[in-house]
Write a structure and sequence with these properties.
Length: 188
C-alpha cells in the first residue's frame, strides 16, 4: 500500500508463510513476510524497516509520516497498535486453523482474541474522535493505511473477533479508504 501511495513501481509475489516457506526463506531467514528486495539487491525485512526506508527515500513531503515531534509519535503509535491487532489476529487464526483440533489451546486463542479486540476498540476510539476525517488530521497517513488494513484483515481472517465488537467509526474509515483506487486495487 505504501509503495502504491508513493507511486513506486514494484513486482509483488504472493507467498504464504504457512505454505511457501522455502521461497520465503530465500529472502528472509526468519521465514516471515513481507520482504522488499531493492534494485541493488539489498533485502529489507519487516514492515517497519521497509516502510521506514520507503518514507525516507521517497516521501520528501512527509505525507505519510511526519519527520519529528508529537505528530510523528502519534502516527507511529497508531501504526504500532494496528500492527499489534494484525499480529494477534494471525496468532488466533493459526491456533484455530493450523494446529490439530485436539491440540488447540483455547486459553491462548481467548487471549489473542482479547488483545485483538482491545486494539480494535482503541482504533475505534481514534476513528470516532477523528469524526470522519483521517485519524491524524486532514491527510491520509501511515496510521490510516495500517488501521484500515488491520480492520479489513481481522474482518476476513478472524471474523469471530468482529462479531463481538461494534466498530462503526472504524468501519466508516475502512469504507472511506477502500473507496480510493489506492486501496481498491490491492484487494484480492
Amino acid at each position: 500500500m505504501v509503495l502504491r501511495h508513493l507511486g513506486l513501481d514494484y513486482e509483488q509475489k504472493m507467498l504464504s508463510t504457512a505454505d511457501d516457506l522455502p521461497d520465503i526463506l530465500k529472502s528472509n531467514p526468519v521465514g516471515r513476510v513481507p520482504a522488499l528486495i531493492l534494485d541493488d539487491g539489498e533485502t529489507l525485512i519487516d514492515s517497519g524497516a521497509i516502510i521506514d526506508h520507503l518514507v525516507e527515500a521517497h516521501d520528501g513531503g512527509r505525507r505519510l509520516l511526519p519527520a519529528s515531534g508529537a505528530a510523528r509519535r502519534a502516527v507511529l503509535r497508531t501504526t504500532a497498535l494496528a500492527h499489534g491487532v494484525m499480529e494477534k489476529g494471525v496468532s488466533s487464526s493459526y491456533e484455530r486453523n493450523r494446529r490439530p483440533a485436539e491440540k488447540v489451546y483455547q486459553g491462548w486463542v481467548d487471549r489473542c482474541d482479547s488483545q485483538a479486540e482491545s486494539g480494535l476498540q482503541a482504533l475505534e476510539a481514534l476513528a470516532a474522535a477523528a469524526a470522519g476525517q483521517w485519524l491524524h488530521g486532514a491527510e491520509l497517513t501511515l496510521a490510516d493505511i495500517t488501521a484500515v488494513i488491520a480492520y479489513d484483515f481481522v474482518s476476513t481472517s478472524a471474523p469471530y473477533v468482529m462479531e463481538r465488537n461494534s466498530l462503526p467509526a472504524l468501519a466508516a474509515l475502512s469504507a472511506k479508504a477502500n473507496a480510493m483506487a489506492l486501496f481498491a486495487e490491492t484487494r484480492p
